[in-house]
Design a protein that fits this description.
By secondary structure, this protein is an alpha+beta fold. The protein has helices at about 65-90, 95-100, 115-125, 130-140, 150-170, 180-190, 210-225, 255-260, 270-285, 285-290, 320-330, 340-350, 380-395, 400-405, 410-415, 425-440, and strands at about 5-10, 20-25, 35-40, 45-50, 55, 195, 205, 300, 300-305, 315, 360-365, 370-375. The protein folds into 3 domains: about 5-125, no CATH class; about 130-225, no CATH class; about 255-435, Orthogonal Bundle (hpI Integrase, Chain A). The chain is built from 16 helices and 12 strands. It has a 3-stranded antiparallel β-sheet, covered by helices on one side. A 3-stranded antiparallel β-sheet has the order 8-9-10. It has a two-stranded antiparallel ribbon with strand order 4-5. β2 (about 20-25) and β3 form a beta hairpin. α5 packs across α7 (about 210-225) and α9 packs parallel to α13 (about 380-395).
């Protein structure tokens, strides 16, 4: 059978032990190819590139070149048989099928019983690194170098891969990561991934920004494994990271005041979360930071806080309301809610405060624009406080550089993504600046005619 298969062994793929893996390269289209691991690795200088085989003078301690070349030819025959089986079984994604099933020890007659999933699982375990084990090893290395939030995103990325593996009924290996995988994975995350699987309120499909985070950290993980020479290079040039401008609200100062002054005596369990939320609105801190403020962080009317996410110190002047709330918190030692509970409670508090204006946002699902309309209080989360602080200070005319000193943003580009103002608010802000500059008069001299 004449097929585009050839053995390859490349110098730039040399591992830490000085050896390069011998692959069988399958060119399944004019522009796309996959590499299948033969399980054989030799120093590159003993590879005959022209003939596609191991040279005769391979040192005996590295193996018998004749037997190793026989093994390489056997691998080619196995792949040829798999291509034929895929055609007979009318398997649409024959590339994924071959990558998953192939192993140098595969007995092709095992495919006749039709138990494809069992054979795939067995084949995936032979001579292939376990992707999920490598993710766990990657997390161990990164654990003390990144924030807990980043570790959570990596764990979510692992969970998404497992869900996709179950959905497509094919094990995921490092050889899976080609364009076919990316294309079908994006489709799965966009239209088929079930969120809140064990809840009554299941959501199907992810937003583009969430997909973007998953792809971003998948690429970082794979590149880390390549740099450490654990796996051969992987072409990730087609792995696009989606980045959609997020719709998010902010609360105006008068709305924050309403929340601050709302009588919660009938709901004593909500008071602690309300107080922390107001503190966050007046300081710009994240949930991980405003829930861990201690007495030692307050000195001379200033709040000194090391941000968990960025590992960056910020110094924040405290307004009277924030200072009083923190003093009460230290005295009462109120329990702190988890982030999900906090987000649930602050929505209830917003409703009690009358923050009920209807707000409509849109987001992309594939090429569709999805509209969602809810009361403003239903859009409130712990992160709304941080956006509110940045936006209110910006509208009040505080220099951006000074706001960034408090918010901890290192780049203006990132800061401006937090600003949430309407066109009318933009116009009013410019009008205020023009009034102060020249009383809304563009020219100093009047026309004589």
């Amino acid at each position: 059978m004449l097929l585009p298969l050839r053995p390859v062994c490349r110098q730039h793929d040399t591992r830490k032990d000085g050896k390069s893996v011998v692959f069988i390269q399958y060119c399944y289209s004019a522009t796309h190819r996959i590499q299948l691991n033969t399980g054989i690795a030799i120093p590159w200088e003993f590879w005959n590139t022209n003939k596609g085989c191991i040279k005769d003078h391979l040192p005996c301690e590295l193996g018998d070149s004749r037997l190793l070349n026989i093994q390489i030819r056997k691998c080619i025959r196995i792949i040829e048989d798999l291509i034929e089986v895929a055609a007979k079984k009318k398997i649409d994604d024959n590339v994924t099928f071959i990558k998953t099933i192939f192993s140098p020890e595969l007995n092709i007659s095992d495919l006749s019983d039709g138990s494809f999933l069992e054979i795939q699982a067995a084949g995936a375990g032979k001579n292939q690194l376990n992707v999920y084990h490598e993710i766990d090893e990657y997390i161990k290395v990164r654990y003390n170098k990144v924030s807990p939030a980043t570790i959570t995103i990596i764990l979510n990325m692992k969970s998404h891969l497992k869900a996709f593996e179950k959905y497509r009924k094919l094990p995921i290996t490092f050889e899976s990561f080609d364009f076919n995988f990316y294309d079908t994975y994006i489709d799965f995350l966009t239209f088929h991934y079930v969120q809140n699987r064990f809840s009554k309120n299941q959501v199907v499909g992810m937003k583009q920004n969430t997909i973007g985070k998953t792809i971003k950290h998948l690429k970082i993980f794979i590149r880390d494994r390549v740099r450490r020479k654990i796996i051969p290079p992987v072409d990730l040039s087609v792995y696009k990271v989606f980045d959609e401008e997020a719709d998010a609200i902010y609360l105006k100062i008068d709305e924050i005041a309403k929340i601050y002054n709302t009588d919660l005596s009938p709901y004593p369990g909500l008071a602690a979360d309300r107080n922390l939320f107001v503190v966050a609105c007046l300081t710009g801190l994240r949930f991980s930071d405003f829930t861990t403020i201690s007495k030692e962080d307050l000195r001379n009317g200033l709040l000194y806080k090391k941000q968990k996410k960025s590992d960056h110190w910020v110094v924040i002047p405290l307004q009277q309301e924030a200072k009083q709330i923190l003093q009460d918190i230290f005295v009462n030692n109120a329990p702190i809610s988890s982030n999900p509970s906090f987000n649930k409670n602050i929505k209830i508090i917003g409703k009690l405060a009358g923050i009920n204006e209807s707000i409509t946002f849109t987001y992309k699902q594939g090429n569709k624009g999805i509209k969602v309309t809810k009361a403003k209080c239903e859009w409130v989360t712990s992160h709304t406080a941080r956006r509110s602080f940045c936006t209110n200070e910006f509208l009040a005319g505080t220099p951006v550089k000074l706001i960034m000193q408090i918010s901890g943003h290192k780049r203006e580009k990132d800061f401006y993504r937090y600003i949430r103002i309407t066109p009318e608010e933009s116009a009013e802000t410019i009008k205020k600046i023009w009034m102060e500059r020249n009383n809304m008069q563009a020219f100093s001299e009047k026309r004589k005619d």
